[in-house]
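note to self — DONT lose this again. spent like an hour looking for the file last time. sequence + predicted structure for the chain T wanted, 82 res
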Amino acid sequence: MYFKRIIPNYESSLMTTRKMLNRLNKPNDLIKFSQHFIKIKISEINDFPKLDLKDIENDITFGKYQLGQCMSYLSSMFREKR
């Protein structure tokens, strides 16, 4: 039995695939920062850059799936550091 592929937006999927291929051999510079998570109070942050959700989705992640997973990831990271 065969089923149709689930690709809701072909153009978006093609763009995501191209971005993934372009980043395939790029070094992961973020790994060095993730080893230094510290818990801080929101009142201690005065100049944190504000990013638009579209900027994050298009330039930092590969789409909405990763954005949906980030809260659970960060939550687990902070639980482990206690």
